[in-house]
From TrEMBL:
GO annotation terms (biological process): isocitrate metabolic process; tricarboxylic acid cycle
The name this protein goes by in its record: 3-isopropylmalate dehydrogenase
Protein keywords: Oxidoreductase
Molecular function GO labels: 3-isopropylmalate dehydrogenase activity; isocitrate dehydrogenase (NAD+) activity
InterPro entries reported for this sequence: IsoPropMal-DH-like_dom
Enzyme Commission (EC) number: 1.1.1.85
Every Isopropylmalate dehydrogenase-like domain range: 4-321
Alphabetized Pfam families for the sequence: Iso_dh (PF00180)
SMART domains: Iso_dh (SM01329)
Tree of life domain: Archaea
Family membership: Belongs to the isocitrate and isopropylmalate dehydrogenases family.
C-alpha cells in the first residue's frame, strides 16, 4: 500500500529540512507526498497565510508533516492544529550520546495542551495604551490531555507524570487545569505530582533526572520544551507530534531560523525525528525505530551541522542518516 502524506514546508529553514525528511521517509516506506503551501511567502502572494486547500488537505489526511512558520505562525500553526483536531503536542527532549549537551542525562517528554490557554487567539487592542488577552482553560480540554497522558505513561517505562502549572497565581485558569488533570490521573490510578512552572524551569536545569513526563498548559509547554532543547544541544534536535483523535500533524519544535535560512546548513534532525514519530503513528514501528537508530548513530559519530559543532550541510547530514538505514 502507498501511504499518502501531506507536506507543508512553510518558511525559512522549513523549506530546507522538509525535503530531507521526505528523502528519509521515501527510503523506508512506499509513499506519495501531497505538497501544500502555507506561511509568510504565501501570504505575501495571495493575502492569506493558510490557503483553504492546505487546511482541507491537513483536515482529511491521516498525517501531515509541517516545517516552520515565521511571522504568520499564529495564522498557520494554530489553524493547522485545529485542522487535525489536535488536543496534545508531544515534545520529547532527549540528550544523545555524541552531542555536546549541557545536561547529557536529560530524557524528558512534554505533553502540552494544544488548543487553548493564551494561544486561543482572544487578543484585543482596546486603546492606544491598552491591549488585552483572554486566557481560556476548559475542564474538557484539560481532561482530554490528562486522559492522553494517563495512556501515554501506562507502559513500564514511566511512573506517572508531573503537572507544571502556575495555579498559585492563575488560580482560576491553571487551578482548573490542575484540578482536572489530577482528577483524571486519580480516576486512572496514575501517580501524579505537581510543580510550579517557574520552579520547574530552575529544577530541570539543575537536575533533569527529577522529571520524566511533564503535562503543561499551552504556553508553558511551548516555553519549557524550548528550555529543555537548551539542555540537550539545541532546537535542531527536538521533534513534535500534534495528535488528534483521527489524524496528526508532525513538526520540528524549531521555527524558521531566518539567521541561517537559505544557506543549506540547517540541522535536519528535528524534522527527521518528527518523521519517525509520524511513521510510528501510521503503524510503521520497525521503520520508525530504524530512522531513530540511524539518527542516533549519526549523532554519536557522524557528520553534523554547525549548530552541533560540525561543518556538514543539511543534505550531507541527511545522506549519512540514510546510509545507516
Ligand atoms: N515548526 C514549528 C514552528 O514553526 N514553530 C514556531 C512557533 O512559533 N511555534 C509556536 C508553537 O509551537 O505554538
Amino acid at each position: 500500500m502507498t501511504e499518502e502524506i501531506v507536506v507543508i514546508p512553510g518558511d525559512g529553514i522549513g523549506k530546507e529540512v522538509i525535503p530531507e525528511a521526505k528523502r528519509v521517509v521515501e527510503s523506508v516506506i512506499d509513499v506519495t507526498f501531497i505538497e501544500a503551501d502555507a506561511g509568510d511567502a504565501v501570504k505575501e502572494e495571495t493575502g492569506t497565510a493558510l490557503p483553504q486547500e492546505t487546511y482541507d488537505l491537513a483536515a482529511s489526511a491521516d498525517a501531515t508533516l509541517f516545517g516552520a512558520a515565521g511571522e504568520t505562525a499564529a495564522d498557520v500553526i494554530l489553524p493547522l492544529r485545529d485542522a487535525v483536531g489536535s488536543f496534545v503536542n508531544i515534545r520529547p527532549a532527549k540528550a544523545y550520546p555524541g552531542v555536546d549537551a549541557l545536561r547529557p542525562e536529560t530524557d524528558l517528554v512534554f505533553l502540552r495542551e494544544n488548543t487553548e490557554g493564551v494561544y486561543s487567539g482572544h487578543e484585543d487592542r482596546l486603546s492606544d495604551d491598552l491591549s488585552t488577552l483572554t486566557r481560556v482553560v476548559t475542564t474538557s480540554a484539560s481532561e482530554a490531555l490528562a486522559a492522553f497522558a494517563c495512556d501515554y505513561v501506562s507502559g513500564e517505562e514511566h511512573d506517572g507524570f508531573t503537572i507544571a502549572h502556575k495555579a498559585n497565581v492563575m488560580r482560576e485558569t491553571d487551578g482548573r487545569f490542575r484540578d482536572a488533570v489530577v482528577s483524571v490521573a486519580k480516576e486512572n490510578d496514575v501517580p501524579v505530582d505537581e510543580v510550579l512552572m517557574d520552579a520547574f524551569a530552575t529544577r530541570v536545569c539543575l537536575d533533569p533526572t527529577q522529571f520524566d513526563v511533564i503535562v503543561c498548559p499551552n504556553l508553558a509547554g511551548d516555553v519549557l520544551s524550548d528550555l529543555a532543547a537548551g539542555l540537550v544541544g539545541g532546537l535542531g534536535l527536538l521533534p513534535s507530534a500534534n495528535v488528534g483523535t483521527d489524524r496528526a500533524l508532525f513538526e520540528p519544535v524549531h521555527g524558521t531560523a531566518p539567521d541561517i535560512a537559505g544557506n543549506g546548513i540547517a540541522n535536519p534532525t528535528a524534522t527527521i525525528l518528527s518523521a519517525a514519530m509520524m511513521l510510528e503513528y501510521l503503524g510503521y514501528e520497525t521503520e520508525s525505530n530504524a530512522v531513530n537508530d540511524a539518527v542516533e548513530a549519526v549523532l554519536s559519530d557522524g557528520p553534523r551541522t554547525g549548530d552541533l559543532g560540525g561543518n556538514a550541510t543539511t543534505t550531507e547530514m541527511t545522506d549519512a542518516i540514510i546510509n545507516h538505514l
